[in-house]
Amino acid sequence: MEENRRFQVAYSLLPFGKLGVDKALLNFAGSPEAVFCDPTLKSLPHLPEVLRQALTSRDSLLREADEVLERVNKLGCRLTFFGDTDYPHRLTFCDDAPVLLFYKGKMALNAPKVLAIVGTRKPTPAGREWTEALVKGLAVKFPDLVIVSGLAYGIDITAHIAALNQQLPTVAVLAHGLDILYPYAHAHTAELLQTSGCLLSELKPGTAAEGWRFLQRNRIVAGLSDACIVVESGEKGGSLNTASRAFEYGRPVYTRPGRPSDNRSKGSNNLIKHLVASLIDGPDDLLSDIGWSTTCSRKANVEPTLFRPLTSKEQAILKHVSKAETVGLNELLRLTGLSVPDILSATMQLEMDDMIEALPGNCYRAKKG
Q1: CATH of 312-366 among 3.40.50.300, 3.30.2020.30, 3.30.470.10, 1.10.10.10
Q2: What distance in Å separates the CA atoms of residue 244 and residue 248, rounded to the nearest whole number?
Q3: N or C: which end of the chain has fewer CB within 10 A?
Q4: Is 201 strand, coil or helix?
Q5: CA nearest to 148, candidates 178, 113, 177
């Protein structure tokens, strides 16, 4: 397992950037170890040059991975890699999900119901009270709920503390390594929430908090959750970015409107104005809109997410795979005109949707029934 983790960490260190090929390359190779050990991968057509060069530095990447694992062990942290059983399944539907996550505490993110609550760092007293009342009402209706936020000042920390007060697991997604805590004023809450939830980060230990990383972090907050609630927000702010990412992922967004003259409500009001968010009065809105119930099982909550519209690329691939007993990668390249990364990304998603299955030799066939 340790050797496998070594290659997983090394894979996460590759310079994928915004290339969008991290899951595609993983799917093509079959495992992180194969990416580093199969010499033919370096000659793949369409492989970005920056990755081709990085794969020639295997030894240095593995040494860095060893250093990361050593720090992880000293911190008492754990890892989950894309495809692991404890990897948050909601994130697998997000194209830009990180391949590796570091966490400290109990991984609670595959619970039946997960909700993000975010907002301004400088809320009104009414905003804090409403957040506390909302979490209390949700805990009564949905005792299996997990609350996700960012441990920031204001609405974030209010949501975490309210969840703890109601004995709900809560997860704090951080914009730095787990050996750092920002803001340090929330250290006590961070310690408490690890008893049933966790601290979570895509960043290796030793990574400092920088402004741009908070925006990057927001996509994880959004992707982990079934829905996102923005309590209060100014005209600009990180919570609006989280809401935007949730909207892009097809997750319902809700907000609490405020007076037009209140600067701390302008962002929230704009979310409603631009049809990004729906107005929320209380827990009953989630019950009616998302279809949550107090008796539904985990399976009942997961299945609706699976029935999603196929992209044009997925439709093109499924069309050709369904017509033949098996179809190879090279044939799909010829039939669809798509690039290798596009095909690998789309076939991976179709596999996760249980519509096709991968066969040896980079071939695919449609699932029956």
Answers
A1: 1.10.10.10
A2: 6
A3: C
A4: strand
A5: 113
Distances (CA, A) of 364 to 264, 299, 325: 52, 27, 9
DSSP one-letter string for 25-88: HHHHHSSHHHHHH-GGGGG-TT--HHHHHHHTTHHHHHHHHHHHHHHHHHHT-EEEETTSTTS-
Q: What is the pTM of this model?
A: 0.77
Q: Phi-psi category of 361—alpha, beta or left, where left has phi over 0 and alpha has psi -120 to 50?
A: left
Strand partners, 104: 199
**Domain limits, the chain:** 2-75, 105-303, 312-366
Task: Provide the angle, in degrees to the nearest 10, between the axes of the packed helices 211-223 and 238-248.
Answer: 40
CB 268 within 8 A of CB 235: no
| Cis preceding-peptide flag for 48 (omega within 30 of 0) | no
Nearest-angstrom CA–CA distance, 279 and 272: 7
Which residues are CB-contacts of 39 (< 8 A; sequence separation ≥ 6)?
none
- What is the tens place of the pLDDT at every residue in 70-88? 999 999 999 999 989 999 9
What is the average per-residue pLDDT within 55-59? 85
For the ranges 15-29, 118-132, 337-351, the one whose mean pLDDT is highest: 118-132
